[in-house]
Write the structure tokens for this entry.
Amino acid sequence: MNYAHVHIILNHFPTIGTVLGLLLFLYALLRKHDELKEVSLVIFMVMAMLGIPTFITGAAAESAISARSDTVLVEAHKDAAVLAFVFLAITGTFSWLGLWQARRFGRMATWNKGVVLALSIVTVVCMINTGTMGGEISHAEIRAEGATAAADGEVGLNGALEAWVLDNAWVWPTGETLHFTGMTLLFGVALMTNLRLAGLLRAVSFKAMHRLLPLGIFGFGISLTTGMMLFNANPTRYIAVPTFYLKMFLLVVAGIAVLYVTVFDETWSLGPGDDTPMRAKAIAVVTTAMWLGVLYFGRMIPFLE
Amino acid sequence: MERNTLIKFGAWAVAAILAVVIFSNEGFLLWLELTTFGTFVRESTSFFGYPTFIVLHTVGLSVVVGTSTLIAIRVLGHANTIPLQPLGRLFPLMWFGFGINLFSGSGLAAATAVGQFGNQIFIAKLIFVIGGVICMRWLQKVLFQSGMGEDDVIPPIARRLAGSLLGFWLLAMVSGRLIAYAGVIIGR
């Protein structure tokens, strides 16, 4: 089993998941059902997180079939994947914000309902398009006529992005600097909320801590955007390093675990002086270790190339 | 200004001048590179060599900058439902993070001392870090070691220090990251 297999397995989740999420969200909006709305937001957020390994293993899958001649299909699939990933990530971010608003204010902001709806529709279209193109790479029987014909000299979205990063000397250092800055903000928020859960800052209610979470997600957004931009410009550098996959695995799991501090009653109900349940303490310790692992494996990449 | 404060400022000024004189001496920097510590960090192929120092530097930075940034943001008025005084308990952790960075940073600087101390971006980073540390310590004294109560109004000096802290950390991080790109930026 190689990363091409993993990509084939993973890519179904964000595609089917976003469709299901959208259907559920539409139903919840029509029925004014808040719980179902939140379930669909959770689905969008989890699918966005799963989009990260799907995108990365896609680069590894491309490497595995690089000897093939029909690279036009692969390039078209990559272009579609970049667009789909961008919209998926933005949808996931606004969905998380909706969950945060629902927890903090009792309901998701009306403007955000419209934003998530519009974004999720665009994402579903992009995901279906990407999935179809991906399927055509290995299934000649479903290809449209002329799908393998090369477009003369045309540079797609992916190629343009790659050239922008690699051809401008300032882009890579700026991207790395922003990546570190975002990571520091994210780690600070993760550390502070986890210290509260672990019992160190017991005098602070979790409701108060909850206000810091958007800052952490902002940091995560900066790091994800710049990280994926750098990865996309030179994927072969990263996919050859085993610890890169470990970093991304920990990132995805720790990212999904953010839901615990965002929506769960167990954390939200912690008032000043309240001790935390053992489960919350365990989650705090494990997720802090995971974020440290993300830092460790990320920083080790240049030494393990 | 009180006599003790003047003496303290004078001592720090003398220490700063001495540091500049010592670290601009190429013979000293070369000696630093050839110490067991500098040689180990630069040449060791063990797991605990250069990569570990880099990782420690990143972890220490995340702890000290990440946590102090949030305290500064709170002092500036964001998330003001978080009571301020309990946050004072985070300072030992922040100083621990800074200790990690001081140790790992010393190792990384000693390993290539001649190149580092001749690099303007590295010098700028050091100045920003020193500025950040001064603000952090001052903030700790003003807010958490002056008998200030939870209901007391945050003094304007604390807000100025918090703003400066954010500025210094941002500049330190940007310059720190750009050290590796000195060749592209300033041709070193």
